[in-house]
């Protein structure tokens, strides 16, 4: 594995019976990169991500994430990544502070470090006034930003974001992407799935999956040049139409 790559997959495949959900995909993600993983619903994005984060065993192929093998070192992968699922991951019946404390413990931080990180996250997000409120009472945008911060609490090498801005307003989406940029500039690699094609423009490189295969992979600028179009949405439409 190239030392500059934090994810490297070759021929990664996942089959369910006779159905091939992910068909021999090969790609790498560089350290500190914002890597967009795009595709329509059912294209295989989530299945591929589940293999990379160590919760689904591939049928064949090879992959390493943060230097660990997806077949034999899934638990090591889980300790070295952050993950924010499409379905909101925090607990609605715990307060903001309790959620941070709980996930800090899950990620193995000491009590002293959890206390420090709790204070830091609440201040960074401007949540001082609602720190003792139940997370379930917060607006969706605040929940999403808190969930992202909690995914970074243990300072992972890579954070996987599955449709992180689904359902939030445009202003909150922009604020969320500012948080992504900040994490990237601090050296965290961002692997993000999204169905918002304008968000593909914010990524360093983009992979587009169609029917379980990666059909395009490059910078947004080069992909638009390659397909002779003005937007990533047009790139996606051309690929979808075959």
What does it look like?
The chain has helices spanning 45-52, 74-80, 96-106, 111-125, 140-151, 170-185, 197-200, 220-227, 232-241; strands at 5-16, 19-30, 34-39, 60-65, 68-69, 81-84, 158-162, 189-194, 205-210, 213-218. The protein is built from 9 helices and 10 strands. The protein is an alpha/beta fold and 242 residues long. The chain has a 6-stranded mixed sheet with strand order 6-7-8-3-9-10, sandwiched between helices. The protein has a single domain (5-241), classed as P-loop containing nucleotide triphosphate hydrolases (Rossmann fold, 3-Layer(aba) Sandwich), CATH 3.40.50. 37% of the residues are buried. Helix content is 38%, strand content 27%.
Describe how the helices and strands are arranged:
Blueprint: E1 5-16, E2 19-30, E3 34-39, H1 45-52, E4 60-65, E5 68-69, H2 74-80, E6 81-84, H3 96-106, H4 111-125, H5 140-151, E7 158-162, H6 170-185, E8 189-194, H7 197-200, E9 205-210, E10 213-218, H8 220-227, H9 232-241
Parallel strand pairs: 3-8, 3-9, 6-7, 7-8
Antiparallel strand pairs: 1-2, 1-4, 4-5, 9-10
């Amino acid at each position: 594995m190239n030392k500059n790559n934090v994810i490297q997959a070759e021929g990664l495949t996942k089959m369910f019976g006779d159905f091939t959900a992910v068909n021999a995909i090969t790609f790498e993600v560089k350290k500190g990169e914002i890597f967009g993983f795009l595709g329509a619903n059912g294209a295989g994005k989530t299945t591929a991500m589940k293999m990379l984060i160590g919760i689904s065993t591939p049928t064949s192929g090879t992959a390493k994430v943060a230097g660990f093998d997806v077949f034999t070192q899934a638990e090591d992968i889980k300790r070295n990544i952050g993950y924010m699922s499409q379905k909101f991951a925090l607990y609605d019946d715990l307060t903001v502070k309790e959620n941070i404390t709980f996930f800090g413990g899950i990620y193995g931080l000491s009590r002293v470090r959890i206390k420090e990180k709790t204070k830091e996250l609440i201040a960074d997000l401007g949540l001082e006034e609602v720190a003792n409120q139940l997370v379930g009472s917060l607006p969706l945008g605040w929940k999403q930003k808190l969930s992202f911060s909690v995914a970074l609490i243990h300072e992972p090498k890579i954070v996987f974001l599955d449709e992180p801005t689904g359902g939030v307003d445009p202003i909150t989406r922009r604020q969320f992407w500012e948080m992504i940029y900040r994490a990237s500039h601090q050296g965290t690699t961002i692997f993000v799935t999204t169905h918002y094609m304008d968000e593909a423009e914010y990524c360093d490189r983009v992979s587009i999956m169609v029917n379980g295969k990666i059909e395009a992979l490059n910078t947004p600028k080069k992909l638009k040049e390659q397909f002779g179009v003005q937007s990533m949405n047009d790139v996606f439409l051309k690929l979808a139409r075959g």
